[in-house]
Design a protein that fits this description.
The protein has helices at about 15-35, 45-55, 60-75, 80-85, 85-90, 100-115, 125-130, 135-145, 155-165, 170-180, 190-200, 220-225, 245-260, 265-270, 275-290, and strands at about 260-265, 295, 300. By secondary structure, it is mostly helical. It folds into 2 domains: about 1-240, Hypothetical protein, domain 2 (Endonuclease III, domain 1); about 245-300, Arc Repressor Mutant, subunit A (Orthogonal Bundle). The structure holds iron/sulfur cluster.
Length: about 300
């Protein structure tokens, strides 16, 4: 995709400290108008923020709202989640997919209960020691729960950095450095949130530059050229189709087992459109990942 350059646009430079200042100012001005009403934003519980960030991995925010609300009502603290069985946690995960995240979150809750006095740490390094918490999630929790000045760099932010700030494809280290340089030292959490909102609402895979509130400070918009975002660091590649994928088949099995144990032949009716070897492979994979249990020919969600 080529840049939709405006011929009448003033020429501006966004690279370098002065460009960063102008971009920051423009984004801060726009922040109230682009904010999405998401229930976990500015939530007072760091655990609520951690749960939201784990759910947001690989899932759009609109699909997270309902499961997050349900999960927090059932498990309002790390210890309440830690005391529950994995089966109960996987049951509350319904609608989200990628259930390995639920298993990791359950393990993280047990670490928080046993080693952190039921408190989510504020240090990104300690956060990264929790199961299922990578650099993005650690920085997001540190920033949004505690106001730690840590740059949040996901696929949305990666697109903004490549297009608006650098106007070139970024290597992973360059993207991390640029994200840190751009981050203001004060009020960094609202700035991180505004970057996410900008990427989610305007600087999407197919960007909406005509309505973008920072277009006057966007290097790609001003200078033109090929879209630098698709192959830039942190920008996720197009996913393979869900229809017919192992993800879809695993989801069908998990959904069936949320209603109770099923025999292999009973599960077969949820997998009628796949071959017997693939059916066996899907079930074996779920058992191997610890997401379902098998006793003789009966499958169920794991008790612990
Ligand atoms: S949506 Fe905004 S930030 Fe993204 S490329 Fe277009 S003008 Fe730039």
């Amino acid at each position: 995709m080529s840049s939709p350059r405006r011929d009448d646009a003033p020429t501006v430079t966004t690279s370098g400290p002065s460009g960063h200042v102008a971009f920051r100012r423009a984004l801060r001005r726009a922040a109230p108008t682009i904010a999405r009403p998401l229930p976990w934003i500015a939530h007072e519980s760091p655990w609520a923020v951690l749960v939201s960030e784990v759910m947001l991995q690989q899932t759009q925010s609109s699909r997270v709202i309902e499961p997050w609300t349900r999960f927090m009502a059932r498990f309002p603290t790390p210890s309440s989640c830690a005391q529950a069985s994995l089966k109960d946690v996987l049951t509350e995960w319904r609608g989200l997919g990628y259930p390995r995240r639920a298993k990791s979150l359950h393990e993280a809750a047990r670490v928080l209960r046993d080693e952190f006095h039921d408190v989510v740490p504020r240090d990104p390094a300690q956060l990264r020691s929790l199961p299922g918490v990578g650099p993005y999630t650690a920085n997001a929790v540190a920033s949004f729960a505690y106001g730690v000045p840590a740059a949040v760099l996901d696929t949305n932010v990666g697109r903004v950095l490549a297009r608006a700030i650098a106007n070139r494809r970024l290597l992973p280290r360059e993207a991390r450095t640029l994200a840190s340089e751009l981050l203001p030292r004060t009020n960094s959490a609202p700035f991180n949130q505004a970057m996410l909102d900008l990427g989610a609402q305007f600087c999407r895979s197919a960007p909406r530059c005509d309505r973008c509130p920072v277009q006057a400070h966007c290097a790609w918009r001003q200078r033109g050229g090929e879209d630098p975002a698709p192959l830039s660091a942190s920008v996720s590649r197009r996913q393979s189709p869900f229809e017919g994928s192992n993800r879809q088949l695993r989801g069908r099995v998990m959904n069936a087992l949320r209603d109770g144990p099923h025999s292999r032949s009973q599960l077969g009716k949820y997998l009628v459109d796949v071959t017997a070897p693939r059916r066996a492979e899907v079930l074996a994979g779920l058992v191997r990942d610890g997401l379902i249990s098998r006793h003789a020919q009966t499958f169920s969600l794991p008790a612990d």
